[in-house]
Amino acid sequence: MRSGQRLGRRFGWLWGAYGTSALGTWLAFGAFPLIAVRVLDAGPAEVAALSSAGSAVGAAVAVPLGPWVEFRRKRPVLIAMDLVRFAALLTVPVAYALGALTFLQLLLVSVVVAAADITFRAASGAHLKTLLPAADLLVANARFESTAWTTTIIGPPLGGAAIGLLGPVATVAADAVSYLLSALGIGAMGGHEPLPERREAVRLRARDLLDGWRHILADATLRPLFLHTALFNGLVMAASPLLAVLMLGRLGFAPWQYGLAFAAPSIGGLLGSRLARPLVTRLGQRRALVMAGTMRAIWPVGLAFPGSGTAGLLLVMGVELGLIFCCGVFNPVHATYRLERTAPDRVTRMLSAWAVTTKASTAALTAVWGVLGGVLGPRTAIGLAGVFLLATPLLLPHRAAALPSEPESASSRA
Questions:
Q1: Over the stretch 261-289, which tens digit does the pLDDT of each residue have?
Q2: Whose C-alpha in 20, 21, 237, 373 is 20 to 30 A from the C-alpha of 149?
Q3: Transmembrane ranges (predicted)?
Q4: What is the DSSP letter of 72?
Q5: For residue 3, with 0-12 CB atoms within 10 Å meaning exposed, 13-18 middle and 19 or more buried, which class applies?
Q6: Which stretch, 106-110, 257-261, 344-348, 384-388, has highest mean pLDDT?
């Protein structure tokens, strides 16, 4: 198959909707903390709570949504989650215009958006599995990945300019509109989506909430991969605030230099996503996954060593370029691997459980590394995170295993 192959009109609408909402998200990147500080005079503790508590509570709210969505048509769920995010975010500029904006409202909106994000991603993965044949999933996931990095490159600079001209509330309004456009795009996909086969039990039971985790932990290769991604993502994100403190504080970099250090290397994600398919063709899916997962763990420890000036900035950019390139290869292969190892009637629950755990572990590790940064200093804490990351490749699926979903999928077609 060629990387430029056509995946159909319906996928084109889904891809366009994803790109639109992703661009809106990056346009509004950092808007909530800015609103909290500039408009509501919030302190550091409140700003930290806005980012960590909002994600953690949103993840908890999303737990029952995975089993609930599993046996419903996914396209209406995607549209509903887009409209929920549109409505929640739109309350911020409305309240600001009326002079009624509060910190509690910002916190509640972040919770609603986080829960809707998890549910949307889980339903989107399940819908993609039914929309395309298995042979096309890697190409589709690579396109999503390249789009994600493209919006990462262009979104923050445009958002920063918009914030400078119009203020952070305007970028939140733009983000809200992007979800409305995404909902319209998904609605334009058309086609018939069959209703998933329901289980005997119609009502959601308490034990159903853990079905996604049961499936992951019962699979010999999903289980270590699940632990790997939760730990890797959590440690990388936990070190990010400390790196900001180090670069913007002790090393004296200007805000534009700090932004450039992370925006420019995102081109590595574009290159990596383009190479994902050729590497899988040459090495095989599991070997490509292990190779990219191992390589991406090597880079972050270098973030503990930048100095001031141009040399320090180039060091950070070089480390980020290597890290993002490897992530660009790993992410679409990883997304495809999870889908292929999960039966269609479990995908939503699996992806929901995966996202909830990742967000919760990221919030917890960010809090722990915040304390370590205060005790040991940001540079030492960043280095410690990098050392722990060097061990994460041990959790990759180094041994092949049969697809556990194959018998179930075959029986469901009989």
A1: 888 898 999 999 999 999 999 999 999 99
A2: 373
A3: 12-35, 47-65, 102-120, 225-249, 255-276, 351-372, 378-396
A4: S
A5: middle
A6: 384-388
Q: Which residue has the higher pLDDT, 161 or 111?
A: 111
Q: What is the dihedral of CA 396, 398, 399, 401, to 10 degrees?
A: 40
Answer whether residue 83 shows pLDDT above 80: yes
The domains located in the chain, with CATH, are: 9-193 (1.20.1250.20), 210-407 (1.20.1250.20)
Nearest to residue 185, comparing CAs of 25, 21, 14? 14
Question: Which pLDDT does position 168 carry in this prediction?
Answer: 85
Least confident of 32-41, 100-109, 395-404: 395-404
Q: Which distant-in-sequence residues (6+ apart) come within 8 Å of 102 by Cβ?
A: 40, 95
Distance CA 347, CA 203 (A): 19
Side chain identity at residue 404, one-letter code:
P
CA 322 to chain centre: 19
Task: Determine the Cα–Cα distance for residues 25 and 46; give it in Å rounded to an integer.
Answer: 22
Read off the pLDDT band of 48 (50, 70, 90): low
| In contact, 156 and 65? CB cutoff 8 Å | no
Tokens 């929920």 belong to: 84
Amino acid at 84: V
Q: Does residue 14 surpass a pLDDT of 60? A: yes
pLDDT for the residue 306: 93
CA distance 300 to 320: 8
Whether residue 326 contacts residue 272, with contact meaning beta carbons closer than 8 Å, is answered with: yes
The answer to whether the beta carbons of residues 92 and 104 sit under 8 Å apart is no
Any alpha helices (H) in 200-266, and if so which ranges? 211-218, 222-245, 255-263
Q: Cα(320)–Cα(272) distance, rounded to whole angstroms?
A: 13
The two structure tokens encoding residue 89: 């975010």
Q: Is the pLDDT of residue 230 over 80?
A: yes
Please give the share of the chain, as a percent, with pLDDT higher than 70. 91
Q: Enter the tokens of residue 34.
A: 């800015």
Please count the other Cβ atoms lying within 10 Å of the Cβ belonging to residue 298: 16
C-alpha span between 401 and 398 (Å, rounded) = 10
String of DSSP letters for 265-320? GGHHHHHHHHHHHHHHHHH-HHHHHHHHHHHHHHSGGGGG---SHHHHHHHHHHHH
